[in-house]
Amino acid sequence: MKILLIEDERQLSKSILTYLKNEKYSCDLAENFETAQEKLELYEYDCILLDLTLPDGSGLQLLKQLKENKKSDGVIIISAKNSLDDKISGLQLGADDYLAKPFHLSELGARISAVIRRKHFKGNSSITVNDLEIHSEAKLISFQGKPIDFTRKEFDILLYLAVNKNRIISKNAIAEHIAEDNIQFFDNFDFLYAHIKNIKKKLAAIGAQDCIKSVYGMGYKLEAL
């Protein structure tokens, strides 16, 4: 799952990013309005953590643009503004949740999980494609009840394909999803090919062959029968 943190307080953003990466999330950071706007135009996120007070603009304006552009990313407002009017304004503009600063990171993690469950798993904590079951929060994958050992990147790729099952997902979209803020350092898809090859090999070894289809010139698809 991929998260965008829009936060200009460096110590706080550092703490949040460390916590989320320990929880196995892929994370991007935007420290101002302009950077956040650029990332929101380019990428899709499973959850956005949005500070309302940015040095060069308003988080509410970003939220308004997000909804005007019909983006479906989950949004949790994290703000030192704790008035009822601020909460109502954020939720009426389309935020999924509102968490006032200061907060415990574990509470933030629980709220992120809740937003992702509602967004991708119909309120559950796992998604099933054919006999493949992926537990988002426990970071476990099993086939016909048998657990499979995947690396974090392999897990992220398979979950991303499962959430978008029966859709062809471009190599570029997958690369962006797993590369966090480091996509500029990759000048080819060799790292993605290696991960896909390993995933297919591990699935085939346990009997789940041909789950992932390679679509020539386009990308990959996880087919639900």
UniProtKB/TrEMBL annotation:
Q: Its GO biological process terms?
A: regulation of DNA-templated transcription
Name all OmpR/PhoB-type domain ranges.
Answer: 124-224
The keyword Transcription regulation is annotated on this UniProt entry:
yes
User: CDD domains from the xrefs?
Assistant: REC_OmpR_PmrA-like (cd17624), trans_reg_C (cd00383)
Q: Does the entry feature the keyword Secreted, yes or no?
A: no
Residues forming the Response regulatory domain are 2-116
- Family matches, as InterPro entries: CheY-like_superfamily, OmpR/PhoB-type_DNA-bd, Sig_transdc_resp-reg_receiver, WalR-like, WH-like_DNA-bd_sf
Q: Name one GO molecular function term.
A: phosphorelay response regulator activity
Q: State the DNA-binding region(s).
A: 124-224
Superkingdom is Bacteria
Keyword set, alphabetical order: DNA-binding, Phosphoprotein, Transcription, Transcription regulation, Two-component regulatory system
Q: PANTHER family attached here? A: REGULATOR OF RPOS (PTHR48111:SF22)
- UniProt name for this protein: Cell cycle response regulator CtrA
Taxonomic lineage? Bacteria, Pseudomonadati, Bacteroidota, Flavobacteriia, Flavobacteriales
